[in-house]
C-alpha cells in the first residue's frame, strides 16, 4: 500500500542545509519571524480564499523526523551533532494567522511564524506546499459558487487530480463552497457528504441501457441518478430514464436525477427538462458534468439552462488555469531586528518587521476595499500609502479598522480547536458576502488596495537607505 | 502527523455504488476488460511519456479496505452483504501494460485491466489518478530535457506542488529526464539524488551577504552554492561570491556554483560568467531558477546563456499549462463479448474488444510515426485505417511491427520486479531517441498516426450497426 506521512523530510533539502549551517554557527536558536504572503491572484481574479490552516496546524503539532528520515540524513553525511539535534526536533513556535476561510489579497501577511531560526526554517516548504495549494483550490471553488448561486456543486475530480493532492483538493473545495465530493477517501477523512452517479461502463456492461437502469433502480432505489448519454441522450437515455422512473413510482420510489455528461449542455438540459416535465417527472433533477469551470457554469446559467447540480472535476481540483498560488515565506525579523530582501524593484522587496493587517470596514459593515499592513502594535492608522508607488496615499480615518492576524498556536500547540470544516466554509461565505461585487467579477475585477502605514514605510525606506550607504 | 494511505476508499463513490448494484445483480464476478487511454496530448505536444505503473502495481498488490473504510461504508448504509464481501476484497486481476517510460500517443490502449467486474471497477479511480498525473509530469520533464541537452535539470517544486502530489511529481520528473530533486521526502522514498542551494532568508538573516556566504562555506564547504540575488546580483552577490570562493581556494576547497534567481537570466548569466572567469573561477558553475519552463530554457540556450544547471519548480510539478492528462478507463469486453460506448461522434466512441498495439519501426530502427491498434492475436497487419475518418488507410507491410502491451501482473501479483527508477528513465530516454524530431518540437508538432486494423474496424462498425437497428 502506498502511503505518505508528512514528517520532517517533507521539505526542500536547502532548509536542512541552512539549518545545519546556522546550527554550526550557533545561530539556530535566534528568534525569528517569517511572513507568508502571495503576490499574484490566480485566474486573474480579484481575491483569494485562504485555506489549509487546519492541516498546517495538525502537521506542526506532531512534526518530527522519523527514524528513516534520520538514517537518510546520516547517509547524506549531514553533521552528526546536527542530526542528533534533529532527533528531538519538535516545532515549538508561535503562529499568527488570519482565520481559515478569510478573503485575502496580495502582499498582505496571512500567516506569521515566530520561533527559533531552525524551527521556522524547517517548516517553510511544508507550510508553502499546504497553504498555497489549499488556498488555490478554495479560491477556484469560491468562483464557481459565486456564479452557481444556490445550486448544488459537487466535486468529481479525483481521477484527474494531481495524485494524492486530490485529497486536499476535495477538502479545500468545501471551504470555497462545494457541498459534496465523489472522493470517498476525503469524504471519510474530512467528513464531507459523498455523492456519485454511475459510469458509462456500468451501462455498456449490461445488454441494454434500459436493463442497466432497471438493475440500478432495483438495487439502489435511494439516491438513484441515471447517466443518460452512453448511446444517445435524447433518443435513448432520457426515454429509458423516464420508463424506469415511472416504474419506480409504482414502487413508491423516486428517481433523484439524470446526468448529462456530453454534448451541448444548455440545449440538452432544456430538452431533458421538457421531456421529464411532460412525463410528470418535475421532481427529477438534472445533473451536468463534462469539463465544467466557472465560466461554463456562468454561461449555462445565463442561457437559463435548467441544471440543478453541477459536477466539476479537472478544473476544480487542479485549480486550472494556474496550477499554483505563488505564496512565499520571507524573513521579517531576526534577533529583534527587522530584516528584508532588497531587490532591484520595490515590488520584489519584502516588508520588514513584525506586522499586523488592518482591514477597512465601511459604515455598512462591508469591506471598503483596502487593507493596511502596519507594524505590530499600530491599532489605527489615519493615512495609508501605496506599497510601491511613493506619493500615492489615502485618508482612512473614517473606517473601522479590523485586525486580521491573531495568535493560533503557542509553543507548538493550537490555542483553540479547529472550528471544523463546516464552520470554516460558513465563515468564508459570510466574509465573501462583505466584499463588493466589483472585486468578484471575472473580467478585470476592481483592484483591492493593499497599502502600508507611515511607520512601516519609514522602516522599509530606512533599511534600504542604510543598505545603499 | 498528516498521513495518507491509499486504500480501497481512494475511489469515487460511484465505483462502490456500481459495485454494489452488480453484486446484488450477481454480475460482480463477470469477466471484464477495461482499457486505459487518453485523447489529448498536454501542452499541445507531440507525445506523452507513460509513467506511474510501478506505483500502480505497488498499490494493487496490497489494496484492501481498512477497518475505517468498512465502518464508513456501513455508516453510509451500503448493503451489508456487499460490505462483508469487501472486507476480504483483494485485487486478483491481470494487468497488461506498455513499459513504464514508453512514448505513447492518443487513443492507444496503454494499460488493460482484466478481472472480475467488481475488482476492475473498484480500481478505476486510483488507476486514473496515478497514471494521469505521473504521465503528465514525466511528459513535462521530458520536454525540458529535450531542450536542455546534457545540462543538469533539478526539481525545485515541492513548495508550489499540489499538496502531497509533489511527492509523485518529483519521482515522475526523473522518468522524464530530471537528475535530482530538492524534495527530501521523494529523494528518500524513491532514492533520487537530493540537491539544493540556499534561501534569501539565510542571507538576510546575517549582518551582511559576505558574512552569510562565509558562514555557509565554513560549515558546508562541500557542494556549496551561493544564492547571489538577495541585494544586487552583479554589484554585491557575485563580488561577494568571488571573495569567498578565493578564500575557499586557500583552504583547498572549491565553490560549486552560484545561483541566479531573478532578473534577466540571459544577461546576468553572461555577466556572471565573465566575472567568474576574470577571477580565475572557470570551474564555478551557474545555476538558474525563477519561473522556468521548457520555453524559457529553450530561449535562454538559444541566446547562448552560459547556464549549467536549471532549477525548475511550479511549471514542472504542476504540469502547467494543462494540469491534467485526460486519461480515461473504458469497458472493452464483458463476459467474452466486446463492449463499446457509442457516441454521437466517432471520436468519443470507444474501441471494443481486447486489443494489442503494434508500433511501426522503420528499417533504421526508428519509430515510423504510426501505431496500429489491433485485436488481441493479430501479430502483423498489412493495412491500417484512420480511426475516425473512413477511407483513409495506409500500407504498412514493410515495417517491423512491435507489440507494446505485455502482461505485467497476474492474479494480483507482478510477474517481475519493477525495473527501478533509473532503468525506467533510461528506457524512456532510449525510446524518445527513436522518435523523429518533428514529433518533439513544441510548435505544431507532426501528428503521430494512431490507426486501427481492418478486424478492429469491422468489429466496431458491426457493433454500431447492430445498436442502430
UniProtKB/TrEMBL annotation, chains A, B:
InterPro entries per UniProt: Aldolase_TIM (IPR013785), N/Namide_PRibTrfase (IPR041525), NAPRTase_C (IPR041619), NAPRTase_N (IPR040727), Nic_PRibTrfase-Fam (IPR007229), Nic_PRibTrfase_pncB (IPR006405), Nicotinate_pribotase-like_C (IPR036068)
Keyword Chloroplast attributed: no
Keywords for this protein: Glycosyltransferase, Ligase, Phosphoprotein, Pyridine nucleotide biosynthesis, Transferase
Keyword Iron on entry: no
Domain of life: Bacteria
Catalytic activities: 5-phospho-alpha-D-ribose 1-diphosphate + nicotinate + ATP + H2O = nicotinate beta-D-ribonucleotide + ADP + phosphate + diphosphate
Coiled coil: none
Protein name: Nicotinate phosphoribosyltransferase
Organism: Pseudobacter ginsenosidimutans
Amino acid at each position: 500500500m502506498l502511503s505518505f506521512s508528512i514528517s520532517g523530510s517533507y521539505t526542500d533539502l536547502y532548509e536542512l542545509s541552512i539549518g545545519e549551517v546556522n546550527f554550526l554557527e550557533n545561530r539556530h536558536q535566534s528568534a525569528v519571524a517569517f511572513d507568508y504572503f502571495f503576490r499574484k491572484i490566480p485566474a486573474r481574479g480579484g481575491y483569494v480564499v485562504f485555506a489549509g490552516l487546519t492541516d498546517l496546524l495538525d502537521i506542526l503539532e506532531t512534526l518530527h523526523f522519523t527514524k528513516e528520515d534520520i538514517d537518510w540524513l546520516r547517509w547524506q553525511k549531514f553533521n552528526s551533532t546536527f542530526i542528533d539535534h534533529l532527533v528531538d526536533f519538535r516545532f515549538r513556535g508561535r503562529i499568527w494567522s488570519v482565520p481559515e476561510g478569510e478573503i485575502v489579497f496580495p502582499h498582505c501577511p496571512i500567516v506569521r511564524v515566530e520561533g527559533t531560526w531552525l524551527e521556522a526554517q524547517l517548516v517553510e516548504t511544508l507550510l508553502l506546499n499546504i497553504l498555497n495549494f489549499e488556498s488555490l483550490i478554495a479560491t477556484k471553488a469560491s468562483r464557481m459558487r459565486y456564479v452557481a448561486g444556490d445550486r448544488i456543486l459537487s466535486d468529481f475530480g479525483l481521477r484527474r487530480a494531481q495524485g494524492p493532492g486530490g485529497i486536499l483538493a476535495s477538502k479545500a473545495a468545501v471551504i470555497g463552497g462545494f457541498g459534496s465530493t465523489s472522493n470517498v477517501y476525503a469524504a471519510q477523512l474530512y467528513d464531507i457528504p459523498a455523492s456519485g452517479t454511475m459510469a458509462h461502463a456500468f451501462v455498456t456492461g449490461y445488454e441494454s441501457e434500459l436493463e442497466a437502469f432497471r438493475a440500478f433502480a432495483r438495487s439502489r432505489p435511494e439516491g438513484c441518478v441515471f447517466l443518460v448519454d452512453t448511446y444517445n441522450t435524447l433518443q435513448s437515455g432520457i426515454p429509458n430514464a423516464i420508463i424506469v422512473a415511472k416504474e419506480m413510482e409504482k414502487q413508491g420510489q423516486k428517481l433523484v436525477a439524470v446526468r448529462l455528461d456530453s454534448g451541448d449542455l444548455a440545449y440538452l438540459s432544456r430538452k431533458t427538462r421538457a421531456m421529464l416535465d411532460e412525463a410528470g417527472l418535475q421532481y427529477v433533477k438534472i445533473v451536468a458534468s463534462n469539463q465544467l469551470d466557472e465560466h461554463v457554469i456562468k454561461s449555462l446559467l445565463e442561457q437559463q439552462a435548467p441544471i440543478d447540480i453541477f459536477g466539476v472535476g479537472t478544473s476544480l481540483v487542479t485549480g486550472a488555469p494556474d496550477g499554483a498560488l505563488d505564496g512565499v515565506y520571507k524573513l521579517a525579523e531576526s534577533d529583534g531586528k527587522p530584516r528584508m530582501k532588497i531587490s532591484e524593484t520595490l515590488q520584489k522587496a519584502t516588508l520588514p518587521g513584525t506586522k499586523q493587517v488592518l482591514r477597512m470596514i465601511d459604515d455598512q459593515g462591508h469591506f471598503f476595499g483596502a487593507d493596511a499592513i502596519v507594524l505590530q502594535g499600530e491599532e489605527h492608522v489615519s493615512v495609508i500609502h501605496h506599497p510601491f508607488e511613493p506619493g500615492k496615499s489615502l485618508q482612512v480615518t473614517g473606517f473601522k479598522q479590523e485586525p486580521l492576524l491573531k495568535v493560533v498556536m503557542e509553543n507548538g500547540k493550537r490555542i483553540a480547536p479547529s472550528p471544523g470544516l463546516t464552520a470554516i466554509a460558513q465563515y468564508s461565505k459570510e466574509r465573501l458576502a462583505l466584499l463588493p461585487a466589483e472585486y468578484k467579477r471575472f473580467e478585470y475585477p476592481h483592484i483591492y488596495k493593499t497599502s502600508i502605514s507611515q511607520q512601516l514605510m519609514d522602516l522599509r525606506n530606512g533599511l534600504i537607505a542604510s543598505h545603499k550607504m
